[in-house]
């Protein structure tokens, strides 16, 4: 516009601004009506498909599949919670309740819910449950009570949970230390039922606290004298399993293993009452069986003392801790897996030390120990299969398994041993491969039974793996060390470690096959896809 000229009042461009930068583009005057804020029209938004195609999240968000109500007939809570656990927090759907809460309803008591969650996780971890299942249970409890933005974390001795109320509020974190552990599958099953009722909206916070207190107060289903009796019968059944004979001498060996294991169990209980660590309990518990085996071989009596020692090893090997350690490692909980493997190593070293001290004395006094007696020269299914099932039954009793579960576990132990026998005798496969396939079968059946009964798979698989434990190979290595043959001893111990690893990996793989390819016996599967724990590609 030329300098000094007046603008044309009718010019529509006068008083306008660039649209979209400073608001509206209407002329701004000085009248009171012009001072009022004019409504700003909402900018046109492109379709959500265009946002997604460009790699952005649309303003309205992306619709996510909601969790179904976890009542009876729905998918088991471990499946749903594992899927939720492996989903990033910003993608987790909110809990879909069967009834809409009232607007005036008071929100959740965050400290109380977190305390209840930690107490449930402590019981599960102390009972030997895997770290992933403990985290899934903790997430399910907090999720059901309205705490959607929770992150549980489990290590070998410490469990913690953190709740983020919003993006602008500080998180609330609570933790709890697990100092005592025990084998009580009955208590484990009760906690699983409690978590199922909580995720199914069938238990309030107060009800959950009351039931949790009852679970803690309940006594073990079997008294101490029954556990000692089961320990002796387990060792005696192991002598029939590895000896493979049904003659009169076999029953004498059975009785010797029974007496030695009961004495070892009572000695371990006495050491435990004195407050000594578990390592020394295993050292003391392993000595009577080894001493009884050495005594039977003195004077060229011809009794199978090596079988007695092997039977005592079967009653002491920590199969539960080994299975849980490998399961944690395969699911990405490497710190917990390393700690549990170290625990297994210490316990095995305690067993080795107790047996090796006695064997060293026995070799020096010219005890005629024959390791080949612990490997049956021919298959005797009519004796070995019932012995394997009896071993499984008594092992389940030692784990405080519920009486309703004992028949299932006993059958699974017989199935696992039958598969192993067929693969090694008829198929001529390596014992390591046969052990892996047999334990995979046990894991498959155990996972099916747990999904059908909405319970933990630990009571169904741990005892059933008892007949497949590498007791004979460990004894062979220990005897080689006692005779001054370190190379042969290392070979046998390495072979035992390979069998134990195949045992744990096989049972875990069998459970994963059941989760991936088999339908849930009741209800529908999880709405959210279960993702892998890690997505590394070599880096």
From TrEMBL:
It is a multi-pass membrane protein. InterPro entries: ThrE-like_N, ThrE_2, ThrE_Dicarb/AminoAcid_Exp. Residues 115-361 form the Threonine/serine exporter-like N-terminal domain. Its main location: membrane. Residues 388-509 form the Threonine/Serine exporter ThrE domain. Residues 1-50 are annotated as: Disordered. Keywords: Cell inner membrane, Cell membrane, Membrane, Transmembrane, Transmembrane helix. The keyword Transmembrane helix applies. Pfam families: ThrE (PF06738), ThrE_2 (PF12821). It comes from the Bacteria. Belongs to the ThrE exporter (TC 2.A.79) family. This is Threonine/serine exporter ThrE family protein. It comes from Streptacidiphilus cavernicola.
